[in-house]
From TrEMBL, chain A:
<dbReference type="InterPro" id="IPR051393">
    <property type="entry name" value="ABC_transporter_permease"/>
</dbReference>
<dbReference type="GO" id="GO:0005886">
    <property type="term" value="C:plasma membrane"/>
</dbReference>
<feature type="transmembrane region" description="Helical">
    <location>
        <begin position="122"/>
        <end position="143"/>
    </location>
</feature>
<dbReference type="GO" id="GO:0055085">
    <property type="term" value="P:transmembrane transport"/>
</dbReference>
<keyword id="KW-0812">Transmembrane</keyword>
<keyword id="KW-0813">Transport</keyword>
<dbReference type="InterPro" id="IPR035906">
    <property type="entry name" value="MetI-like_sf"/>
</dbReference>
<feature type="transmembrane region" description="Helical">
    <location>
        <begin position="89"/>
        <end position="110"/>
    </location>
</feature>
<keyword id="KW-0472">Membrane</keyword>
From TrEMBL, chain B:
<comment type="similarity">
    <text>Belongs to the binding-protein-dependent transport system permease family.</text>
</comment>
<feature type="domain" description="ABC transmembrane type-1">
    <location>
        <begin position="74"/>
        <end position="268"/>
    </location>
</feature>
<feature type="transmembrane region" description="Helical">
    <location>
        <begin position="180"/>
        <end position="206"/>
    </location>
</feature>
<keyword id="KW-1133">Transmembrane helix</keyword>
<dbReference type="InterPro" id="IPR035906">
    <property type="entry name" value="MetI-like_sf"/>
</dbReference>
<dbReference type="Pfam" id="PF00528">
    <property type="entry name" value="BPD_transp_1"/>
</dbReference>
<feature type="transmembrane region" description="Helical">
    <location>
        <begin position="15"/>
        <end position="37"/>
    </location>
</feature>
<feature type="transmembrane region" description="Helical">
    <location>
        <begin position="138"/>
        <end position="159"/>
    </location>
</feature>
<keyword id="KW-1003">Cell membrane</keyword>
Amino acid sequence: MSAVTKAAKPRKERRGLTRKTREAIAFYACVSPWIFGFVVFTAIPMVASLYLSFTDWDSFQSPNFVGFANYVKAFTKDPLFWKVLGHTFYYACVSVPLSLLIALYLSNLLSNNFRGKRAFRTIIYLPSLVPLVSAGLIFKWLLKPEDGPINAFLSIFGIKGPAWLLDTHWVIPAIILLSLWQVGGGTILLISAINGVPKELYEAAEIDGAGHYRMFWNITFPMITPILFFNLVTGIIGAFQVFDQVYILTEGGPDNASQMMVPYIYTTAFKNFQMGYASALAWILFVIIMIISALVLRSSSAWVFYESEVKK
Amino acid sequence: MNNNYKTPGAKARRYAILTVVSAILCAPLVFVVSIALSSDATTNAMSFSFFPTEWHWENFIRVFDSGLPIGRFIINSLCIVLPACLFMTLSSALVSYGFARLRAPGKDILFIIVLSTMMIPGQVLMIPQFILFRTLGWVNTLLPLVIPNLFANAYNVFLMRQFITRIPTELDEAAELDGLGYFGIFTRIILPMMTPVLAAVCVFTFSANWGNFFGPLLYINDEEKMPLALGLQVLSAQSSGAQTPPWNMIMVGSLILIIPVLIVYYFSQKYIYESGLGVGSAGIK
């Protein structure tokens, strides 16, 4: 470090600035693109959104301050709000754990070395790369009630498939089905996590005579909990913000049976022009996501295992 | 894990399970290819088969003079994606260099802000952002989809900062002795060493914007200004009338939306893995 300071000295004299000041100037010059983007596209919109949530703005006339009326309306006067919130919970609480379990199972099958490993991994990963618009269009086809391939397949076994996207009870399972099709992304992450587990642990366990299931539950599973946890948190946050699938498959129908928070906010703001109420809904969603993330983070110490804790 | 699945029975069972799962996951894509290769007659009769029985590869050329503005959609998508890839990657790299290497008062607070903005869902911002762009007169132009993507975003900054902290600082110090300033160190030393993470961020930016549906849905009304992702959905939704949309052409469009993502991922796998993303989160190792 001393050599560096010496070398910097001539320049310091030249510009009349201390090294510290120059470094600070350089830092702010470097981070200025982020600061600009943050202020213009995040900070100011956040404040504006919070303000709007306390107004009755309809995007045409000037907004009037209405206090907590929008929030009160959501929780007490808007029956659709509870329905939509329930659907969102239903979707998130089924699709996220289910795809995590499937990803865990598949990654366990795929993490070893065996013939055709690469081919299987690629095929399983492929659907998760498909843009949601394409995926949505594909599933709209697959799920057609009369002649759709899924129901045609079920009829081979004598099962009469439901009307899926047209059936109020089956529409959310249909959207969950689409999310399960893209299980490969999580699987790939878990495979690399499993491959990162030190081999010595398995060798030691084998000497002790542990079988496959013991090894999985006592070595693999605890060692990859940080990644599982990461997938769980990001998955839940993502599931609460689901939009594309719902909009493309059903636009919230039939009879709002698949309406979820973000498409509902979109409809409220840009179809019904209740900008104030929609802003309040967006903030409610934000707070819900924060609470869930905090709960998951809190609970994590009970079951997430960090390698560094052992080294202490 | 070499000790699992040793017995022939376990091996066979694993192959059986993986084959069934792969077949189920592949099936929708097979069906898309089958529709995309169907003739117009099959399309009008809606008598698609699951496996391709006709091979009308010329559909991939016909789609550009079929009267559907798919060529236009692709150009619009490229106008959004290419500037985003270039500027998002470079600006995020510059910002992350600042956070990783330079000391300044207020830096820690700014970095906490970076981390916390990663948690803000876009929906909270969508209404005021829409108002902002409407005030600027940018609605129904590509600008709201291009401009915000030119400025470093929190997730990429975090990712790249983690990467830079693994580059030895001795390199910076040596370069400084040779008379390089902070910007020189960034362009000559750090940036060349960041190739894997630059590629990874570029790929993520590409696929996020190429497939983006929500943004264009908010801002674009005219069909000739739509990017491919929105355009396809609009074309397919026009089916509600008496006439069915040309599904073979729409599925060709869908494949055009899918294929670049697959190609980009295939060639960037190595970089994504090297940038440390293969392990999932920075916390594990």
